[in-house]
Amino acid sequence: MYKIYKTKTILNTHKHCDGGWFWDKYSAFPYVGCEWGCEYCYWRDEKYNPHKASRDKKVSEFDDAFSQYIKAKENAPELLKKALKNKPIDLIYLDNYQPIDSQYQYTRKMLEVCFGLGFPVFINEKSPMLLRDIDVLKKINKKSYLNVGWSIITNEDNKIRKIFEPKAPLVQTRFEAMKKLSKDKILTGTVFMPILPFIYDDEKNIEAVIKKTKECGGQYVLDAGLTLWGYCGEYFYKALEKYDSDLVPKYKNLYSNPKLLAEYTIEIHNRVLKYCQKYNLTPYIPRPVSFYPKELQNNKKTAEKFYLEARELQMSGQGGYKEWAYRKGAWALDDLNEDVQKIYQNKGLSGIMQIEGIGKSLADKILKVEKNNNNFIKRR
Ligand code: SF4
Fold first, then answer.
1. Whose CA is nearest to atom 6 of ligand 1?
2. Are 330 and 310 in contact (CB under 8 A)?
3. Same domain, yes or no, for 39 and 182?
4. I need a surface site. Which of 21, 189, 307, 361 has the fewest CB within 10 A?
5. 114 CA to middle of ligand 1, Å?
6. Model-level pTM?
7. Within 13 Å, how many C-alpha atoms sit on residue 263's CB side?
8. How many structural domains does the chain have?
9. Residue 298's domain spans which residues?
10. What is the pLDDT of residues 317-352, one digit of tens each?
11. DSSP string computed for 16-85
12. Whose CA is nearest to atom 4 of ligand 1?
């Protein structure tokens, strides 16, 4: 069921960019819920589920309101235009195309707003419907930046995939769309999330997805594991039971033991790294910086290295203090209004240490990264 309504706000501005992952600073969603209804989708968790905030009594009438009750924000494009007008240019995340968009075209209209105002865009996509708007997408790509990540968990369109992605478009159509974008020189790749334990985590599936990404002109593979928080876990277990009830206790054992889960996550992530190396793809999305003021691009690139370190530590289960130190260092660099190289040139290491959030050890690391830059300016 669909409901068309007027929303009060459309733009989410995040305190920090989604460093190491999609790099977005803003996000905007023209629809509430997702008709593709993947069984593993973490958006169903109480923490994210957009339906919970709608205070709409209809929600209780559905088994799975998230995928069965789609609300469309008819004023999304005009609100987006107003909201972005006075915002600094930065990356905006637009979520995937919904079937209802063929009728209302709110996603297209929002893309036109982004193009008009010169905002770069990232789309995490499940549907080749996106190609309908290739004209606008190409214009955004030419004017600022566009990246389309294809949400893919397996290379095979078979009964098993149907259990976990009952309504999503065929994987092969996603790969074909990836190929088309790549031919149009648009950055694209695979968002390999979640890698389902004991179902899609084997060498064969991981290599097949990565190899196919390469063949279709994708440039990266970004992987992550399955999250089973709250209602999202409760919902997923029903699908797992349908697939293979013997896996339920295996999952429960894995997800109730943080040490085991960390070891497992490292093993699977290493598998992805191995095949990314084999097929010469990056296991991350390179940070786009061309739309930032010239004098800040160097800081953003150095911050990228810190964000990626933090992500690797997080993925390898060695998070904690070190991971957060890197992340905080990246935030400090992102918030800086002056080129860190200039600071060093004028004030030396102590100048870098005066930046809020940067201690001696991070200052040394910044300097090391900067010294590897071709454009490194020596201290006067
Ligand atoms: S397409 Fe994406 S947002 Fe929609 S249900 Fe599937 S995983 Fe969730």
1. 38
2. yes
3. yes
4. 361
5. 23
6. 0.95
7. 4
8. 2
9. 294-371
10. 777 888 999 999 999 999 999 999 999 989 989 999
11. S--TTTT--SEEE-SEES-TT--TT-GGGSTTT-GGGGG--GGGGGSTTHHHH-EEEETTHHHHHHHHHH
12. 34
